[in-house]
Amino acid sequence: MATTRSHILCAIFRQLKARPGFDSIGIENYRKLLEKSALAFKPDNSIKKESFYINTIQAQWLEPELYNEKHIIMYIHGGGYVAGSIKSHRDLASRIAQACEAKVLIFDYRLAPEHPFPAGLEDVKTTYQWLIDAYTNEYKISIVADSAGAGLALGLLSILLKETKPLPVCAVLLSPWVDLECKNQSLVENAKKDPLLNLSALKSTARLYTDHDNLSDPLISPVNSDFTGICPILIQTGENEVLIDDSKNLAQKLENRGAIVQLDIWKEMFHVWHYFARYLPEGKQAIKEIGNFIKKHSQK
Questions:
Q1: Is 57 in contact with 107 (CB distance < 8 Å)?
Q2: Mean pLDDT over residues 221-239, rounded?
Q3: How confident is the model over 11-21, as pLDDT tens digits?
Q4: 115 catalytically annotated
Q5: Contact (Cβ atoms closer than 8 angstroms) between residue 31 and residue 81
Q6: Rounded CA separation 219/18 (Å)
Q7: Cα(40)–Cα(95) distance, rounded to whole angstroms?
Q8: Which of these is catalytic: 175, 221, 241, 297?
Q9: Catalytic status, residue 241
């Protein structure tokens, strides 16, 4: 089993390291490559899909065979604010739907650089508002988000706190990118361990996302927000990520504000390893634990 796992990890690492960045092939080609890669991760045939629009935002319900009709998950995909879509993250979102026994709403928010900050965040807010308007208080709404999507999720939560609007029952953040100033030490310390991300690419992506002079703005780098009163949060991050300090610092900030927060650091794992759950046991296990966390807080 250990040898098989090692071979799988090596194969995934080779694939990630060989993947060209948007700086070498252009953003449009990078987006196409991401969606093409997703063809290797087709959702289970038992997942029902229903496409529709929320205003101008393309959205899709993902419905597993077994689910609690009162539990809903809003999934915010990652992609560095410049890529990612319903198609690229459908398999991961579907697996989360099955693990949580809940319907998942996934949607296409506007991407930079065509639509820089705050366009994507505005779409996230619009989608969440649609959910709480369409579903009454008897429904339990949770948020799951990965990478840059986790930054958008935290931006949404900080807005909801400020505007005293209903919060989700809980949130799960996978390998969150929440400090766009890119000043954490792990960006250097884990540079040779991370097969996917690096400091230079993250800095370039941050500048594509916004021309705002102050990257420390809490809605851009939400680690700087005041999260007093926030809902329970599970953070899952990989030991080998350059962004691991984003998770550590965020967890400490949340704890200091009295939040219920659970930080899980997965040994040897890389950025959003959940994406490879079809092939990677750690991906399956991490998603199972997401299901346990959301079920626990949805029953309260």
A1: yes
A2: 97
A3: 877 777 778 88
A4: no
A5: no
A6: 33
A7: 14
A8: 241
A9: yes
260, amino acid identity: I
The CA–CA distances, whole Å, from 265 to 6, 10, 159 equal 19, 20, 28
By residue count, the chain amounts to 300
Q: Which position among 77, 89, 271, 297 bears the catalytic label?
A: 271
CA distance 242 to 189: 7
Considering the segment(s) 2-298 as one domain, its CATH architecture is 3-Layer(aba) Sandwich (3.40)
Whether the Cβ atoms of residue 264 and residue 287 lie closer than 8 Å to each other? no
One-letter amino acid for residue 26 of the chain: G
Catalytic residue among 94, 147, 175, 186: 147
Which residues lie across from 49 on neighbouring strands?
62
DSSP class of residue 213 equals S
Domain boundaries, the chain: 2-298
Q: Which residue is it, tokens 């799951």?
A: 144
- Kindly give, in sequence order, each residue whose CB lies less than 8 Å from that of residue 196, ignoring residues fewer than 6 positions away: 16, 19, 270, 271
Structure tokens at 279: 């092939």
- Return d(Cα 164, Cα 228) in angstroms, integer: 12
Instruction: Dump pLDDT digits (tens) for 172-196.
Output: 999 999 999 999 999 999 999 999 8
* pTM, full prediction: 0.96
- pLDDT per residue over 112-141, tens digit each? 999 999 999 999 999 999 999 999 788 999
